[in-house]
């Protein structure tokens, strides 16, 4: 339980940080979609470690191999199996923590739940597992591209350093121009400096990833429990290190009055639109055709390059020493993960919406 | 799709605001649990309309009828069917909006999704549906009580008026002492005044509900996608008017450094505990035995007692007039709903955790 | 777990034989379908007890009440809640078996599973629960009728008395002309006599229901585990008293050679057809457009009007006396239940097939 | 949809006959189970092609590679990923049927469903996919062995040649002593001769696999839709070439009277047992602790070594020539597949039954 995501466009992942391989099975991808392996590889590059001075220096190529479900370059409707071998395992980096519970990691909770754990690099709890999601998300993105739907995430905050501008005021096409993935080049530079200084302190820091989904048709969402934003929220909260999710007006919106917050409907040409979008493109849990936007809070990474006191399985006091190669801040590498999970949600809800009306059968 | 919640302890709801009845089927409640109907009724009273001057003045008794699954006062393991008849329907209140799209309601999106809609009082999109959840949540609470698990929600913010104190500094037993359900009697009074003034302006305002879950055993949660906080987040985002969810350090935590944010493990007597709890009782998506706490943002209610411009199904400009009897602020009545959904999540994950270890089989 | 059936067109039932009411929630019915309540009632009449001398003489009107999901005569896409009150409960008929395990009933297994049970008339294990399925199946039938799909079941065997003719040689429109629901009037008469003589012996007898589904489009089915016939099989095996399921050539087909059994493809007009249909309209778990046909074996009802030796909860030897009013043979009343479950499967797979191809999105 | 099986102990498979690899992800295996890779390999050998003169002569080693979920020889509770590379693909064997629909194969139905298909050796519809199930089933068997549960299948019929004896009269430990997997050595010899003569006729023939499950505890099964036998039936009907399933008294039982068919309860020592077992170990969809037994009908394999007339995608008449290396009768190799699927069902229901009673929480 817990390794699958989605209902019709559904993925199931397996794999530990330092096991033989990670993998994902993608079910429900409609047949006839051109599968561009290079695009999947490009997405993997955006997530992979070692891509810049502000990410972990681990080297993993994250090479994908498609095992099934694609024939002569197109999806066949059968499950797409993908594996990603773990090349740079360096298990000895982790032997020193075999029976220790690292603070704010999942060591203790996995041990309590299962009575046994793969302690190498966090095992299944490692963010390395998200590589499988990015591969699957790339397939979902190709499906969405077919419908004109675009997903763009970017770093909007690092520590206390936040973008003031809304997504409409930014040129999101510049997001990939810098290593922190912030579309404002000036703020990006400050963010990079901040992360670099945190890294030099052998510490870590949190951040926020914002995301915009454009051109979603109206009608996606499955109330009452599987509202579109509830599933987006779950998708984001299921990413390592995430502590919060808000969409549209979010937590700030609670201060507003209804008369300000309501989004007036107007007709523009053939289409019904809203003049403001505090709703974040979703009303009653169903997309209304406006931009969907949301924000995701990431805590500071728990692995720090400092000594920390903790306990081991026996309950003895021990020192956990910071070793290995870790990210001082996860948000630059989290951008493609947020996009991948958003793509998976939208692809799934697109398929779910095919049987809503009798006239469409 | 979308009307069920949970995997083993699972509910399915039906019903519209102004249909014949609402209902819920509860599956997976372990056999032998004493079902106290009066407790369910008490919970229903906390949610029902018309309970104070700061809630809607609609009168609905929300009387429950248990149709199955309980025999001689105990659960039998078979599904518990509950119905709640809609007494005070007053459908004529809604005839004036039959073909109009009320701003920031679900009228337009339901129409786009289904091509047809029950316009009376929002139909299925009405928060009235949450009555069924509160009934089911009451059963889940009885199960949790059997394990000593307690869930307490309270109003921590109305508009810009926020409690400064953390839940540890508050006496949560005072929550039900005032009509706004804020455990600080002084702030509660201010909140009530604020809501009352908003009501007199024929407007609405948002708020925040905070929630604490105590005595959860370590080991609950189903990584990687169904992390305990991801499911809690989905549960909360599935409540009407919710725009955001954060747990533990939440959005504020992004400003912290790892060295501050990490929760050190220590041994206290027989138990492994943490000295701080920025993790919010959940690490790697699995409960660690510390208090679980989270915050839920509610937007200002979309129904305001003012004229608003909008369009109808034909796209013509129309005026939507505020009529009927509505809540100026939902958070006081949202407190039991938040608790109910939290109880459903914890009950479900408690059952899911029964088969984690071979030694327990 | 276990009270829901279907994935997109999905039902959840609740209710015990002698509880307050039975009920069903139907999710996923496409919006805009005209819901003919009279048709549902007609289907209920076909299943209800007391309809002829060869069925139980219990009187239950099985009156349905639609609580939600239908507005101005049409489905709205939201869940359709239906309840059926238990009018003629006569619980005292069952007090004599409160702690006894009736042979070949579910008394012992429910007790072992749950440690508690509603002993009145079998509780949840009673075939009375199928009333809820027939109501839901009627809605599914209305959806299928919209696509021209027809489902016709009939009694093909009672005890050792079997119809020799295949369904193609029979006039299925005559099925409802007699009380045993066998389309051959001569054999029907013999079956009725046989059941009546068994009834006079205070005994029961088994039978077979055959079913044909016509006009199903090619392409329905979800290999590899959810093949169309696997789901049909599960649906049938989930009906009380069913011991076997076979489709197409079935158990007899094992004696054939591939060269005989293979169904040759030919083109007829625009359509690809097969000249024989040993496949039973399903190849590789997917419908091919030919008639789907299958057979369902029902054991003799366990409740007999004779004294039987058994044990009680304490393990003491006890006598179970046949009381109450029961069916000497279930197959006449099982015909609408088989049809209902078949309709639910086909409706569900029809919706699932909407997203198979990219070109259809 | 359709590539997963099970609820708590759950598998998801991918892979085509002539793609790069097959694979399976096993979720929910309780942590701490010793995983004996050699046992998995032994099970794979029982299913693999080329094992005797009466099976296909294709050579596939079906070597498994465990990619995750096992650490230091034990399951960790995280998903177990297994891949099986396709070594002996010989795709050119299939080029001659690229656009032809082979009679009684899934060529036509996959094409209708998806508009595209991997024609090489049946693609996803090939029984080769069951290799992944046997690997997963081996893990389930190891879990069941831990609880003392045993599953034994055997060939009970080939063509018209059927074992007369019931499983109680046979020595099932002799099943693996001959290549047809029939525990009666005399009948086995006749079956082998029959299959060999059919093979020489360049034809195929059907058969029946019987299966017995011993030592299942009482209480497994999830009524009303997920009865234990309904899920077993679905599991079996989901195996390639299966046309029928019956358990306990099955189709023959319909001829019996209730007074004969009912299984009397008696107390033996501490345990409640039944003196007969027409119920097949399942009452009301829940195991009663007696032996569970069932029969599965397999049609003659559709691939025959003869020329057959058919049509191609354009609807033109074409000749399909029998080429490649195929099984004249599938039942000998189906024995481990039936056992694997039965093991998966029982393992899943064992876990599901952990939360039935309040006293067990």
Shape of chain A: globular
CATH homology superfamily of chain A: Chorismate synthase AroC
Percent of residues of chain A in beta strands? 15-25%
Contiguous runs where pLDDT drops below 50 for at least 5 residues of chain A: none
The helical percent of chain A reads 10-25%
Strand order of the biggest β-sheet of chain A: 1-2-3-7-4
Overall CATH class of chain A: Alpha Beta
CATH topology of chain A: Chorismate synthase, AroC fold
The structural domain count of chain A equals 1
Tell me what the structure shows:
Chains A, B, C, D: InterPro entries: Chorismate_synth, Chorismate_synth_AroC_sf, Chorismate_synthase_CS. Chains A, B, C, D: Its cofactor is FMNH2. Chains A, B, C, D: Homotetramer. Chains A, B, C, D: Its EC number is 4.2.3.5. Chain A is α+β, with helices and mostly antiparallel strands. Chain A has one domain: Chorismate synthase, AroC fold (4-Layer Sandwich), CATH 3.60.150.10. Helix content of chain A is 24%, strand content 22%. Chain A contains seven helices and 18 strands. In chain A, strands 1-2-3-7-4 form a five-stranded antiparallel β-sheet, covered by helices on one side. In chain A, strands 9-8-10-16-11 form a five-stranded antiparallel β-sheet. The longest helix of chain A is centred in the C-terminal third of the chain and has 22 residues, at 331-352. Chain A is globular and about 65 Å long. Chain A starts with a strand and ends in a 9-residue tail after the last helix. The interface between B and D is medium-sized, with 22 and 22 residues. Strand 11 of chain C pairs antiparallel with strand 11 (242-247) of chain D.
């Amino acid at each position: 339980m817990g390794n699958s995501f989605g209902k019709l466009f559904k993925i199931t992942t397996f794999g530990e940080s330092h096991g033989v391989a990670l993998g994902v099975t993608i079910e429900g991808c409609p047949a006839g979609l051109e599968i561009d392996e290079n695009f999947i590889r490009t997405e993997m590059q955006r997530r992979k470690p070692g891509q810049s001075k502000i990410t972990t220096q681990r080297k993993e190529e994250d090479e994908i191999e498609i095992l099934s479900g694609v024939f002569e370059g197109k999806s066949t409707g059968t499950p797409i199996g993908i594996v990603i071998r773990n090349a740079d395992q360096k298990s000895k980096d982790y032997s020193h923590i075999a029976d220790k519970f690292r603070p704010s990691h999942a060591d203790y909770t996995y041990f309590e739940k299962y009575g046994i754990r793969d302690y190498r690099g966090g095992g299944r709890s490692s963010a390395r597992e998200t590589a499988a999601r990015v591969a699957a998300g790339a397939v979902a993105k190709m499906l969405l591209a077919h419908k004109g739907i675009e997903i763009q995430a970017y770093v909007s905050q690092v520590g206390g350093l936040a973008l003031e501008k809304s997504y409409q005021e930014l040129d999101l096409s510049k997001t990939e121009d810098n290593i922190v993935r912030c579309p404002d080049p000036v703020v990006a530079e400050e963010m990079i400096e901040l992360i670099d200084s945190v890294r030099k302190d052998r510490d870590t820091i949190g951040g926020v990833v914002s995301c915009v989904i454009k051109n979603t048709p109206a009608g996606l969402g499955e109330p009452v429990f599987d509202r579109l934003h509830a599933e987006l929220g779950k998708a984001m909260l299921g990413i390592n290190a995430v502590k919060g999710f808000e969409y549209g007006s979010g937590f700030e919106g609670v201060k507003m009055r209804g008369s300000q917050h309501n989004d007036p409907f107007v007709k523009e040409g053939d289409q019904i639109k809203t003049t403001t979008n505090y709703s974040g493109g979703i009303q009653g849990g169903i997309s209304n055709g406006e931009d969907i936007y949301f924000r995701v809070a990431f805590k500071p990474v728990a692995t720090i390059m400092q000594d920390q006191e903790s306990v081991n399985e026996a309950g003895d006091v021990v020192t956990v020493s910071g070793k290995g190669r870790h990210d001082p801040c996860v948000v630059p590498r989290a951008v493609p993960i947020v996009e991948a999970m958003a793509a998976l949600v939208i692809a799934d809800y697109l398929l779910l919406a095919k049987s809503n009306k009798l006239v469409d059968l």
